[in-house]
Amino acid sequence: METELPELFRRQSAATGHSYTFHSARAGMRTVSKAAELDAMVGKAADCAAAVADADVDVIAYACLVAVMAQGPGEHRAAERVIAGAAASSGHAAPVTSSAGALVRTLHDIKASRVAMVTPYMRPLTQVVREYIAAEGIDVLDAVSLEVDDNLAVGRLDPAGLPEIACGLRREGARAIVLSACVQMPSLAAVQQVEDELGLPVITAATATTYEILKALGHRPAITGAGRLLVGTLGPAS
């Protein structure tokens, strides 16, 4: 998120003339494991929200998909309420999205009821994500786990390997590919290539979050090289 969102908004700014600033607060995590750190990470969300709200931002995005999903079905709704409340209590209320909520809402927006997915997680956590998405009415036909549990190592994965991985997904009947169901895993460099090669919409945690931020701002997507979603040719507004 911290590398891909600024790049996506740079492209949006170049296309539209809108000016954007990017502010972040990190809830630290080393091992991507529910037992170790995911639960604790969720508990830090309100403090992080208050920290970024201090900049009087126009939108807040909570960017840890699996930490929210590991709390149970539908948890993005509660997490977004907590963050909105923390921002309001700081004196700077702002609309809130979460990467978990953005992913499932965006898939509904583009009518992608069946998807194939790539995650960097260990298989048990991938199953958690799969079940969470299924509880929101979206069938995950296939999911590849890259089996990386070190959070810094996830951030250093090479997106150049994603097209080959995506081509290996079982995708008969799929309406979209979720190329990275993780905010830490780089994928932007591969999104357009995979979409062009497979002929299916390609969504990531980062592109879905960007899509929802733009909706909250009332700005039509106009971003090139990141899939049809962010060109503005998918979803209700297209």
Automatic annotation (TrEMBL):
Lineage: superkingdom: Bacteria
The record's annotation in InterPro entries points to: Iso_Racemase_Enz_sf, MaiA/AMDase
Please report the name of this protein according to its UniProt entry.
Answer: Asp/Glu racemase
The root-end lineage is: Bacteria, Bacillati, Actinomycetota, Actinomycetes, Kitasatosporales
